[in-house]
Amino acid sequence: MISKEAILHILKTVKYPGYSRDIVSFGLVKEIQTETNAVGVLIELTSPSPEIGEQIADAARLALRDGIPGLVDAHVQVKVPTGAPTPPGPVAKNRLPHIKRVIAVASGKGGVGKSTCSVNLACALRHIGARVGLLDGDIYGPSIPLMMGVQHRPEITEEEHLIPPFAHGVRLMSMGFLIPDDQPVIWRGPMIQKTMQQFIHQVDWGELDYLLVDLPPGTGDAQLSLCQIVPLDGGVIVTTPQQASIGVVRKGMGMFEKVNVPLLGLIENMSYFTAPDGSRVEIFGHGGGAMEAQRKGIPFLGEIPILPAVREGGDRGMPAVVSDPTGPAGRPFIQVAQTLRERLG
Ligand SMILES: Nc1ncnc2c1ncn2[C@@H]1O[C@H](COP(=O)(O)OP(=O)(O)O)[C@@H](O)[C@H]1O
Ligand SMILES: [Mg+2]
After folding, report:
1. For ligand 1, atom 26, which residue shows the shortest CA distance?
2. Among 43, 134, 147, 236, whose Cα sits 20 to 30 Å from the Cα of 318?
């Protein structure tokens, strides 16, 4: 009778297709049975690929027949997991050597001030001395050009790279630069993904400490796949107090978790309103963001008040944090930027 060790020894010559390692060292051989002139082997794969299963089964049968003279029956069974789609783990992403940190800004829904926060946070990081880029990931509703006050098309280098326009010390890229305002974008997913890939890899961002990515609002497949295309170092979630209280934030956190992107923290926007007499009016309730952050054990990055200056700044392309960094709108953004910088080390 043939020993199990001898069979394992033979199976060690079977390489996993595409790898230099063998199926034994990958831990895929689950069972070995031996009889006088017969061998039974059970191999279990972890990825649902029937083709690879067949290749391994064939290779294992051959190896056993070659390795054991007189073997009559080599029964090799390969179990391939079915149904379960491959988890959307971090895909092989090209790291960006000139960019230290790539940070996504997300929100559960539109209208919470995600773009407003992205723009002001980018300018606030610049204000505290960082080199910053801002990428508008919202292909359908690009708002960065208007909010940063830039409308001209980016120049193109001889290598067909885009040179990102510069505003308030921040480098920018947006679909809004490339298509006229009145022309709706009706692309499908793959086209958007390709564009984002180009925005990351074919834009001359230069040396950056931070590249912020203003993701499209929501937490669906489109946002998820952008998170996989862009080599993210972390994600920030923008919420309003009432959204946080109904759990929309959790979806945002879930999205980053699914793609293994660390959560850097939560910003609560439109937190409160300061009345002319100086008193604080909490229009949408208070503390939802901080509570949700605490529940989830992630940092609370700060609260941004509702202020006409914030909206007006966005409308005229002069972010509040740029026009009045020490004012009631500027200060909270700079505080958020400082907290974020500390958090990132
Ligand atoms: N803190 C704030 N105070 C006043 N207005 C705000 C504030 N945050 C956002 N807004 C306004 O709310 C609207 C939606 O903001 P926007 O940043 O476009 O949201 P999103 O990107 O989440 O859809 C804009 O008109 C913006 O100027
Ligand atoms: Mg937006």
Report:
1. 311
2. 236
Asked whether 306 lines ligand 1 (CB < 6 A), one says: yes
> Which of 79, 110, 145 finishes a domain?
79
As beta bridge partners, residue 167 has 170
Kindly report the CATH number assigned to the domain that includes residue 264: 3.40.50.300
Cβ neighbours, 10 Å, residue 198: 14
How many angstroms is it from 213 CA to the middle of ligand 2? Answer: 11
The CB density around residue 308, as the number of other CB atoms within 10 Å, is 10
The residue contributing the CA closest to ligand 1 atom 9 is 113
Burial of 77 (0-12, 13-18, 19+ CB in 10 A): middle
Q: pTM here?
A: 0.74
Q: Which of 79, 113, 142 is the last residue of a domain?
A: 79
Domain assignment of residue 86, yes or no? no
Q: Which two tokens stand for residue 269?
A: 């926007």
Expressed in angstroms and rounded, the spacing between residue 120 Cα and the centre of ligand 1 is 11
Q: What is the pLDDT of residues 233-275, one digit of tens each?
A: 999 999 998 877 677 888 888 889 888 888 999 999 998 887 7
Residues 154 and 214 in one domain: yes
Domain count, the chain: 2
CA-nearest of 240, 220, 274 to 111 is: 240
Domain that holds residue 205: 99-344
> 22 φ, ψ to 5°?
-95, 165
pLDDT (0 to 100) of residue 139: 84
Angle, CA of 102, 107 and 112, to the nearest 5°? 125
Residue of 311, 318, 321, 324 to mutate, ligand 1, most atoms within 8 A of C-beta = 311
Whether residue 329 has its Cβ less than 6 Å from ligand 1: no
DSSP H helices, 70-128, are 114-127
Residues 253, 265: Cα–Cα separation, whole Å: 10
User: Are residues 49 and 125 both part of a single domain?
Assistant: no
